[in-house]
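Supplementary Text 2. Reproducibility record for the structural model of the 95-residue chain.

All settings were left at their defaults, and a single model was retained for analysis rather than an ensemble. We include the record here because the model underlies the residue-level annotations in Supplementary Table 4.
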Amino acid sequence: MLRKFTSAAVASAALAVALMPAAGATGLATCDSGSPDGWQSKETLTEALKEKGWQVRNVKVDGGCYEVYAIDDAGERVEAYFHPVTLERVPTKGE
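Retained model, structure tokens:
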């Protein structure tokens, strides 16, 4: 009886993990960006934003997009998303 319960519990846990969204993904934006082999580098995006007057604090991948934490050219703190192939800004839910 205990073996059946344990097997059922393990199966349930595995299913729950499989159905969870990717760890760390916020769901604010998603990009159909394909394989990372075709992406431009984080450094290229950072340099492009610095040329626009941004102070980039961090760039990470979230939802297939580059998520950028920065101070923009107006001095405002921003969390912005960019498509990793085109480097175009991606609107977030609520924008």
